[in-house]
Design brief:
about 140 residues; 5-stranded antiparallel sheet; 7 strands
Length: about 140
Amino acid sequence: MSSFRTTRPLRFGDCDPSGIAYFPAYFNILVGVVEEFFADIGASWPALFTERKLGMPTVKFDVTYTAPGMHGDTLDWELRVVEIGRSSLTLQHSISRAGTPLWTATQVLVATTLETHKSVPWPDDIRAALTRHLDAADA
């Protein structure tokens, strides 16, 4: 399956006074991209959180920066599903600007119930949607 792709502008508020992207802003943008991905597979976060009482906290991040992003850049975002566990999900993010890699991140999310905050298996419909996006090279 192909990866999920989107773009995001790097805005003034995402940068330090020198115009370089501030890393916490990158994480905020990343959360928005993950939310958009889940909406794209038919699992909107409002429905998951309020109706199904399903949370997805990030339990691990591994980030490598290779070049600075600058105020005004358009970030090209690629999200790949690389592993689906019983309750875990590993995503690989690749962020670039006009073909120049800026940073990569491996993110692990865990499905939890919002009632007890304990891990739970991915619901069958979400697992099926995620599986359709599983990167065949990593399956």
